[in-house]
Write a structure and sequence with these properties.
Elements: E1 2-5, E2 14-19, E3 22-27, E4 30-31, E5 36-42, E6 50-55, E7 69-74, H1 79-87, H2 91-99, H3 110-123, H4 128-133
Parallel strand pairs: 6-7
Antiparallel strand pairs: 1-7, 2-3, 3-4, 5-6
Helix pairs in contact: 2-3
Amino acid sequence: MEITETPSDEMQQVRITVDGSKASLRIGGIDYSRVVSGYTIHQQAGQAPDVVIQLAKGRNSPDFDGYARVAVGVPYEPGPAAAHFLSAIDAGLLEKAALARPDLDGGPHGFTKAVLAQLQQWARGEFDQAQEMS
């Protein structure tokens, strides 16, 4: 994600209210809810919070004005990260792990489904099965 930041001395007032599964995000009194697809709040003890907002694809936003450091995230394409992840996979280990999966079925495309499930598990950082096979 590419991030644009306001200078640290320019704080913006941020108000986030959540009603069930919907959130309202106001920065400097301006409602950004329609143009934001997500947000993250991070705060270290004794420091001002950082709010990173991710704009919905194809949406524009008005200027900021307020009291919090704000970073605007631009959605990134997952291709390069996926290519990097896949280039680190040991083909032999992947085949062994896929064949050892309890959810491997004998139906059409069963092995391919098991390989994809294994890759998803590893992408989430779940490497227990790989360590057991080594």
